[in-house]
Amino acid sequence: MTNKQAHSSIGWLDYNDDAAQKMNETLRALDEPSTLDPLGLGSIRDAFSDLIAPGTSTIHTRLRYFLFIAWICQRIEKSDTSATQFASRLRYDEATLINCLREGGEKQGVQGFTSGIKLKRMPSNAYWGGLRIWGLRKRDWSLADYGRNITQLRASKRADGSDETIGNSLATIWNDMPKEPENFLEEGIDFKLTIEEALFIIQRIRESNPNSLLAFLCSNPGLADDTGYPWEINTDSLPAELKKLLFDAQNISELTLGPQLVYNLLIARRAGTELGRDVKDDVAYQLELLTQWADLVKSRHSELAEWAKQLDSLWIKLSEGANIPKRAKEFVTKMIHLALEDPDKFAEDSRVQKLVQQREFELKNNRSRFKNLETLKEWKSPGFGGQLRFRWQIAESYLSDLAIALESSS
Length: 410
What we know:
Radius of gyration: 24 Å
Shape: globular
Structural class: mainly alpha
Distance between the termini: 34 Å
Largest sheet: none
Strand content: under 5%
Number of strands: 0
Order of helices and strands: HHHHHHHHHHHHHHHHHH
C-alpha cells in the first residue's frame, strides 16, 4: 500500500438529505456546462427521477460506494475519533479508499482517481442522501449531524456490542449491513458486489421504495441492459402504474426537447449578431435537430395530443411527492400545446421564442444570455440541455452491477 498522510480538517455542507443532494448536483452542473438548465426544467426532471430511480444522483458513479461509505462510517464509530476529528478522519479514510480502488485495478467510476485526498467533494457527500432514501441508515441526519453525534453513538453501545437507547432514542443509525471485506482499507478492492451485498441492496431498495421502477427491476436487472431511456425496457411485465409513469416520462422528455433546442438556436443567432461569431454551422445544426424533433412529434401526434388533455392530472400526481414551481408547470404546459399545434413551425413561432426568452430571463435576470453579453460568451456549440433521461444512466449502471453479482452466484 502507498503511504497516506492525514489531511487537515475541513467542513461540509450542514443540510438535510434533500438539500445536500440538490446542492451537490448543482455544483456538478457548474463543472459540466452541458447539464445546465437554462429553462428551469430541473424540478420536473427530478420529480420523475425520484419515482423512477429514487436514491440515485447524477453525481454517483458505482453502486458499491453505498456500502463503502457505510463501512467507513461504522469503522469511525468504533474508533476513538472525536466529533472535532470526524471530518478529517472521514476524508483520510475516503482518500485511503481511492488508493485501494486504484490498487484493485479500478479506474472508471473512481471518484478522485486523479485528485486523491485533494478531491473537492468526497463520495460520502454524494451518497449520503441515497443511504437514507434506501434505508441503509435509519436517521434523517446530515453528515454534519452524524459527525457531531459520533461520540454519543459510541457511548450508546453496550459492552456486548448491542445498541442501548439513550437520549432521544439515539442508537446506531445503520441498518444491519453486510460484513465489510477482510482487510478493508488495507489492500486493493474493486466495485464487484458479492451476492450477499447484492441481495442486501435489493432488499433495502424494495422495502424503502417498493413502488419505484428501480425496485421492480431488482427482480430482473437484466431488463435494463443496453437501454438509453427507461421506457426502452420491455414493459410487458410492468404493473399498470409503472407503465403509466414511463409513458408520462417519455412524453415529457420528448416534448421538452423542443424548447431547449429553440433556446440554443436563439442564443446561437444572438452570438452571431452581438459577438460577431461565425454561427452558420451552429444554427444549421440546431435547425436540423429541430427538424428531427418535429418528425418525432408528428410520428406520435395522435397519442401525444390525447395525452396532453390530462396534463393537469399529471401535475397533481407529480406534486404529491415533489415541489414543482407553478411557473415551471405553466411554461411546460404552454410549450407542449404549441408543439402539438404545429411541430414544423415550432422553431420559428414568435410565441415560442418569446416564451423561451421570458423563461430564461425570469430564472437568470441580469445573467440572462438574452441581456448579458458576458454570459452570452459562455455559450458553446452544441449548446445546453438535451432530452431528459431521469438519471437512467446511473440506474442502468446500478442494475448492471446487480445483474453481474446475481449471475455470478448461479
